[in-house]
Fold these 2 entries.
Entry 1:
Amino acid sequence: MKKTRKLNKFTLTNIKAYGIVILAFIILYPMQSAGLISNSISGQLVPICTYIVMAISLNLTVGFLGELSLGHAGFMSVGAFTGVITAICLQNAVPAPALRLLIAIIAGGIFAGIAGLVIGIPVLRLRGDYLAIVTLAFGEIIKNIINCLYVGVDASGLHISMTNADALGMVNGQLILNGPQGAVGITKMASLTAGVILILFTLFVVLNFVNSKTGRAVTAIRDNRIAAESVGIGVTRYKLTAFIISAALAGMAGALYAMNFSTIAAKKFDFNTSILILVFVVLGGMGNIVGSIIATALLYMLPELLRGVADYRMLVYAIVLIAVMLATNSEKAKQLWERTSFKLKNNKEKERGEG
Amino acid sequence: MVPVPSNAIIPERDIDKTPILETHHLGIDFGGLTAVDEFSLTVGRTEIAGLIGPNGAGKTTVFNLLTNVYQPTRGDIILDGRTTARKTAAQVSRMGIARTFQNIRLFSEMSVIDNVKVGLHNSINQSLAASITHLFGYGKSEKKSRDEALELLDFFNMADLAEHQAGSLPYGEQRRLEIARALATHPCIILLDEPAAGMNPSETTELMENIRRIRDNFHIAVMLIEHDMNLVMNICEGICVLDHGKVIAKGSPEEIKSNPAVIEAYLGRKKEAAEDAEG
Ligand SMILES: Nc1ncnc2c1ncn2[C@@H]1O[C@H](COP(=O)(O)OP(=O)(O)OP(=O)(O)O)[C@@H](O)[C@H]1O
Ligand SMILES: [Mg+2]
């Protein structure tokens, strides 16, 4: 019989997850300050942090709720542009950049959460894989809306137009969203420290959630919806809760991501990005938070590390993906893994004399 | 369970109290097929009732109607004096009806104790904020749910299996866990769909003992579907026989054993089957 040592498992996962992130920070932060990391990699640190947050939050939807989402980048997009608009509007009111960043991230999370609610209410009532289709459409719709959105701010407040920048009719204002060019004139405020704090916050929310009454209800719905209903769990409500948390965290990641660049366009958050995040989650393991962190960090860096073999970069990347997929899905590899890493546990089982 | 309208067979101790469950002329059609029709019965507050009948008679369909997995085409269900019409499956569960499933439905990826904790869901007071922050009384509510879950597991002698994965348990223990999870919802009546299926004689004897203990300890009604006639005749106080979706007999075990319609329904089937096998 397979044994899950629950209390131990919870603390163990916590230690592993927080430990990896903090350890990486302790190593990377001084190296970055001392200029020991190449510019190209240094520039990737904040994006990696945000993609780790994206992967952990998507794992909540895919791994724990058991619903397929193909538009996670859409929530990232909502968060990114809400965050940028908030940050630029507050430029004078809130001079401290750290505080402005925090407010922008919170605003991004709230708006993405609202988007999750609006999508979730009609779709999560249905039984079947409708969420995949609707989130896919959502991602594309958000991209196209932002592509033709012009937003600016001046003394009299926000101006919004769908035609062009001149139609905003601003007096001495600042252009924030410039249609297909996306957001312009962003003050870069994101840093490795902010990224790590956001990961830790995400871990706190997701790991706690999974190990709670609400989280158990969500996992129960995934394992057997009819049985969950039979013990009095209102399925739609708990699906919505998990989905909104997932969307809000993606929005926060989006806001931080945007603050790492001076300009950012909507096409950055397209279907390919959603799929990339899904790949991180699947390869890291459904419902495996530590796996999401490691898979994201490795796979995000891989194309960067493969620059040496520039021409074959994507080819090697594809081969590695296939190899990891085969390794994580094959029975033999699993057996090998269990034989080595669970030896201790198995021995204990045998001592108990169970068969 | 009694031939309506007389109440003769409800156990005497329950006669003066509101029946825990009443159905009136209940029926459901699937397309052209009438799976259950004119199903009326009354179950006393601490009665052990049996629902029997040949394969495909509509027994599981009755359970699905009682728990609002299906909405009835005709008729009413009164649970503890209140109608269950237009309620969801989750809402009727909260009204006090719990069940197990013919083909076991556990949360198989979760641990044994977590399965029971999910059953306790509505009696554990933990807000969303507490769930996310692990503050605001989280520790207290988790301890309560853990203690109660262990107590229930202990009732079924399963406390030492608490941390095992539910899906990896042997069959008999999965059935017991399903009953423990159902009891965790603090029901007034529990429905058991073929609880002895796939069990060996000693496990069946233990199950009979457990069903009586459930009634006596929790003071609730039990209604069970079973093909094991020895079990049914031994522990059920009232029995309802279903054939082709219709009630063909109701009464005490003695009455059912000697009822010609029941014998015909069971033996007739066997004769047909024997002829089919020969031909
Ligand atoms: N959802 C459904 N759609 C269509 N027909 C159904 C449905 N559920 C049940 N039926 C039909 O209703 C009839 C009764 O089925 P039911 O499962 O209630 O029988 P049962 O008495 O529980 O049999 P068994 O002893 O084999 O479990 C069968 O003919 C079955 O095919
Ligand atoms: Mg059945």
Entry 2:
Amino acid sequence: MRFLKLYARFIPIYFKSKTEHGFGFYMDFVGFALNHVVSYFVIWALMSRFQTINGWNMYEVMLMYTLNMLTFGIAAVFFFFQMTDVEEDVHMGTFDSLLVKPINPFVHMIIRAFGHFFLGDIVIAVGMLVFCFHKLGLSLDFGSAIAFIAVLLGGVLVQAAFIVISGSACFWLVRSRSLMNMVLFGIRDLMDYPVSIYGTVLRGVLTFVIPYAFVNFYPAQLILNRNDDALFASWLPYATPAVGLLLFAIGYRVWNAGLNRYQGTGS
Amino acid sequence: MALIEVEYLRKEFKRQKRKDGFWPLMKSLVHREYEIKTAVENISFTIDRGEVVGYIGPNGAGKSTTIKMMVGILVPTSGIVRVNGLVPYENRIENARRIGAVFGQKSQLWWDTPVIESLRLTKYMYDIPNDRYERNMKLFNDVLDLDEFKKVAVRSLSLGQRMRADLCAALLHDPDIVYLDEPTIGLDVVVKERIRQFIREINRERGTTVILTTHDMADIEKLCSRVMVVDHGKLMYDGNLETLKNDFGNMEKMEVDTDEPFAMSEELRRMGVAFGLTEENRTQLTYDKNSINSTVIIKWIMERYSVRDFIVKETEIEQIIRDLYIHLQQQGTPVSAREEALI
Ligand SMILES: Nc1ncnc2c1ncn2[C@@H]1O[C@H](COP(=O)(O)OP(=O)(O)OP(=O)(O)O)[C@@H](O)[C@H]1O
Ligand SMILES: [Mg+2]
């Protein structure tokens, strides 16, 4: 509660300071939109040629791409620039100020900024989600809507955990930004196509080690009701929320371990 | 029970060794070598409620590092810090409610946010009740003159303005303890004086405990009842200012105006008097006041010269500290002193 109240105080101030930058602020919303348009176009071009990839048709693949984008977008609003700010702070030694305030530094880190940049992504993703649902003839009743939201939140938590963990690397490594980018953008790109197209090793890695498959592959299986290409165990899609919670808890532990390693800079 | 207890406090920093040359660099990618820098070494002290303590020492002595451990920013390598019975880095939130901290080198406020908004955020963050906020703001505004820049973003403030804003923010919630790490760095004379007065008032009226580091000895003289001197991470002196002056301020300086030019005298020198700067008929003499009395010297001079005027100057605190630092350096570890120079 206290957290939400503080959040409500911080956000208007954040936006006021950002809108002062004028045009650039509004351009931010366009953000990666162009990027995504290109990606959808590539999927369209590819799928028009091959019809299906491993049994997944064009709209199913687009749905997967969309889920990845949506869960990342939502997580990024609260964590992405917040964590890059942390990296900057740790590098400059200004992270000190988060450790002398009567509020959990993790919460403080989240509320002092806002990733409006990613709102554009979320809008596009929601639009494409509706479009894919329509094309695939999917509709949600009450129960499946709840299940859908639950797996979506699980996916968001997985994405958030990866942002937090890779971002926290700054407490151990001097130049951690490149690691963060590699994890967040490199590995994430693997997820634009069904995990079932990869070999067993990669499937295992993406399910059990860096479980990115839970941001879109398993949720998509659930939404599309696909039991034919179940990997490892048929109940895995249902584990998405739990995987999200677990991974996020690990992310928080890593962050806390980082705090206690923080050395600051001289002066 | 003392308000702050520090026992055998120690902080080591791990620094990655820099390698020059291709092969050493390649090797360091595989096997990282660290060098350990002990910034604070087995420091122990206690501080009671209401004290104003000056924590001084040469650059790199370990002052900021000690403060950061007391505040809860850094985790000690070993040893104990207890503030109000709490271990700061284990109870950051609880500890933060009761303390205020100003770091002269870095702002604790939100960089992109106007001063007044920053102060308001502080109010919400510390749950300061409205009436107390209004009262404190009014009081602090009078002393710190925040009005002229309250709408300006923290990042665009001048150094002095930023310091005033930071001080205000650090004290808004009536903390029990304030840590001030170089609060007067880079300030003009007027602002410095105003800030000193402010700190004095806060201490007197609210009983706030103050721990401050500084390189400006006037801060120490005007504010602190107790001084701690650190060097190379070790506590070298802990006591009141008077004792420090007596122990290290024993060199006195005398200036004598004579009709005829003053000639150096072997006899005076044997009495322990050193000749300083001499210009025209004014001569400076320095001596250890514990081994020779100024009246003895002046008597000796008056028997030989006609004296127009003379003054005896006690050594200034600046000089005392300079002597003390030099003394420490000669006694301290010359090896690490050289290591510092190489970096
Ligand atoms: N984050 C850090 N990493 C590595 N070494 C550090 C770090 N912080 C401080 N040191 C080293 O520890 C020693 C003590 O530094 P500290 O900042 O405590 O000195 P100080 O007494 O505050 O000096 P100054 O008067 O210059 O502010 C210095 O030798 C410094 O180089
Ligand atoms: Mg310092």
